[in-house]
Amino acid sequence: MNSETNLYEQLGESPGLRRIIETFYGNVVREPLLAPLFPEDIEPVIERQHQFLTQFFGGPPLYSEQHGHPMMRARHMRFPVTNERADAWLACMDAALAENGVEDELREFVVARLKGPAYHFVNTP
Q1: Is residue 3 part of a domain?
Q2: Residue 19, Cβ density class (10 Å: 0-12 exposed, 13-18 middle, ≥19 buried)
């Protein structure tokens, strides 16, 4: 992991992050706990996730420019998010990072950075 660059840069900026997100959603749609929460046309979800993670990892504020303040917990309230689903989401991201050749130290750091938001969205026992 390079402390002189942000996560967005370390993950390959837009092209690298896009590959990770596309791999991630390929995993999500095959995950029985998560797939029912997502629409059949996953492309708009991929685009919004790309915008959000670009901003979240230190790149340009694409999500805020397009959609306003992220308010991610509020945007996820309509979905039954459980601890098990948060775990599955994180596992899908961990796998996507590994599948895209992200080094272990960086992969572990990214997953740790995403744990806070993932569990913050839990709204169902």
Answers
A1: no
A2: middle
* Domain annotation covers residue 5: no
pTM more than 0.85: yes
Directed axis angle between helix 83-99 and helix 13-28, to 10°?
130
What is the pLDDT, as a whole number, of residue 77?
A: 77
- Which residues in the chain come in under a pLDDT of 50? none
Residue 55 token pair: 């901003």
* Structure tokens, 5: 């660059």
In a domain, 109, yes or no: yes
Contacts of 31 (CB under 8 A, 6+ apart): 88, 91, 92
Q: Could you tell me the two tokens for 34?
A: 């998560």
Place of tokens 């039954």: 80
Domain of residue 60, CATH code: 1.10.490.10
Q: What total number of domains does the chain contain?
A: 1
